[in-house]
User: Fold these one by one.
Assistant:
Number 1:
Amino acid sequence: MSATIPSVIIIGAGFGGLGMAMELRRNGFDEFTILERAAEPGGVWRENTYPGAACDVPSPLYSYSYAPKPDWPHRYSGAADILNYLRRLAADNGLLERIRFGADVTEAAFDESAGTWTVHTADGTEYTADVLISAVGQLSRPQLPAIPGREKFRGPSFHSAQWDHSVDLAGKRVAVIGTGASAIQFVPAIQPRVAHLTVFQRTAAWVVKRSDREYLPIHHALFRHVPGLRLAQRLWIWCFLEFFALGLADLPPLRRLVAALCRASLHHEVTDPALRAKLTPDYPVLCKRVLFSNDYYPALVQPNVDVVTTTITEIVPEGVRTADGVVHPADVIVYGTGFKGSEFLWPMRILGRDGLDLADAWTDGARAYLGMTVPRFPNLFLLYGPNTNLGIGSIVYMIECQARYIRQALTQLAGHPGHTLEVTPQAARDFDTHVQHRLRRTPWSSCSSWYRNAAGRITNNWPGTVTAYRLRTRTLHLTDYDLTPTP
Ligand SMILES: Cc1cc2nc3c(=O)[nH]c(=O)nc-3n(C[C@H](O)[C@H](O)[C@H](O)COP(=O)(O)OP(=O)(O)OC[C@H]3O[C@@H](n4cnc5c(N)ncnc54)[C@H](O)[C@@H]3O)c2cc1C
């Protein structure tokens, strides 16, 4: 190692990368560089510009604890407000100078003789650092469905995360494929504008109302001048979400309450029995992400909307053909088909000890100790890695827990110059066994979703409350790691 303060490369400038940088800076670790492939920070909140894009977690909790924002316009923020928050944070804390924009990391390899990581970007630049931290997120690679004929469609078509704002949807016949978290946000936003909307649904979502509210100048003043009030609000939201998160693995009867709330919303908003039947989920609640919306069902009952549940067989030049032979005409197709969530760190090539490729270490599915460290990959840390996504709760809170933990690892490295830190296979195995055991008690094991990989292993989610994760990651125990001198 080159110096007492380890040098760090962070890949990605979303909530994860910026949060890690803040944690380092606040603790005197100032030798870091962030490599970001895009032209500005923001991660998913920069990419997802679709109409109605918003967060399902109230902003007082979906923000860093050390960077509160007293003047969120709404309790549930839109993507633009969250992006502005991240832009401001990066600018106000001098992080922009530390980000190399347009740096698309293609490969990183651990150099055993030097005890350092060498990182390559698509433009041929090489970087070296003692520590490598991946903050590439779980949802940055849009997933397009494997429907035959996609390229034959004669009109514009795009994924919700690559919204084509040059396409004017006014008066058009729009086909929406997919009814997940993004679609239930953009469907109500575009429905009043389009001539006709055909929503192709493979699986009905469990949808619950959210209690959004506008924050007025009086709220902003109170949150700014009475910090106790702001904290109380954050605590209240945290307790509320933690209560429902107990239903995931610890208190299954709570799921009945969630199901009842969703059913009440459906019964209240959709009176047509045929449509209601289509929109009634046929799998256990919480198995897929429960979606929050006050305007999705009201949009679907409008006369210009059809919900089609017949399987799509083909895209044809003039629209979408379903298994009953019907061609549903469309001028524009929007794919609300989610992300490649279980391909962690892909397509980067990450090479650890003895040139071991992380993709080979993960052939049975991604796994990492506390979602952060992997045996044979010394001084590599992952943010929002395997099994740290949440069914209920704020990912920003999880990222903060991880950043604090990784900072402790850096403290160890600073205290042991010339050493590397590598999780022991035993610690990693025990943790994985524990997590997979608990996951079997969750609803996620009873249906297919993006939380599971092709083999059915739940690679994405944390099986419980964020409190449990906070407690597990509060202290880095050196007994879980090998601290090895560089030869
Ligand atoms: C539409 C949408 C809604 C969401 N809503 C919620 C919600 O309500 N609540 C919640 O808790 N979470 C939500 N999430 C999850 C969200 O991903 C996390 O909350 C959080 O933003 C993750 O931040 P991140 O920095 O880890 O990842 P990202 O935001 O994905 O940022 C990763 C960054 O890494 C960069 N990058 C990726 N690969 C490379 C590479 N090879 N080289 C260089 N740079 C690279 C990307 O360009 C990006 O800027 C949502 C996600 C989406 C897509």
Note: The CA atoms of residues 168 and 418 lie 58 Å apart.
Number 2:
Amino acid sequence: MSDSNAGSPAIIAVEHVYKSVSDSTGTLDILRDIDFRLQARETAAIVGASGSGKSTLLSIIAGLDTPTRGTVRLNGQDLFALDEDARAALRAQQVGFVFQSFQLMANLSALENVMLPLELAGRRDARQAASAMLGRVGLGQRLGHYPKVLSGGEQQRVALARAFVVEPLVLLADEPTGSLDFATGETVMELMFELNRERGTTLVLVTHDRAIAGRCEHCITIEAGQVALA
Ligand SMILES: Nc1ncnc2c1ncn2[C@@H]1O[C@H](COP(=O)(O)OP(=O)(O)O)[C@@H](O)[C@H]1O
Ligand SMILES: [Mg+2]
């Protein structure tokens, strides 16, 4: 991580990002001047108290939410210079995102949920690849199950498989082991770091787990919407 533009181009550049939301009761400043860069293959943990702005920051890095000021460059491309369709297309190609709330499609089985990004990418081996990835997260016996009959931990693993399966350039995950027991959490963590080693995937993980944060090269602490200096 670095705070300047010097050196090799960043895979993720978060440039002076601010986020405020307003309603009838006033304005809430959620993020204030978040600024950092990550190079390809780097791993970073985002840590901080509940309500500090971690999920908001991750959504903005993914281009799922828009900053009030500042921008994010993904592999040199200014995400917010694109219109929504172009941003969605870029995200589909390069970003895997694991939501804190999973966001699985209720009307699709586990297998179909994981096949979806592959089908959107035109992959002919969607079924085979999705099935193999569900096997790797320990859900080989749950392919035909719908989200509502899966436990929280199982849904989280489907969400992880859906994000991993396209082998994205960047993997963003919001508390990816939050609903998992220790052993399953370890398996999923291994899988993320394997992607990082084997494919050079840049990892940005929001986590409360010190073991995960400790395995990342960088630890970014957010305090009341700002990066706290270590
Ligand atoms: N769309 C929104 N409207 C109003 N307040 C929001 C919105 N999104 C997030 N917040 C508030 O911003 C703060 C940061 O939220 P969040 O990014 O989810 O924090 P964290 O993930 O660190 O727990 C919280 O106080 C939350 O209630
Ligand atoms: Mg959160």
Note: The CA atoms of residues 16 and 35 lie 5 Å apart.
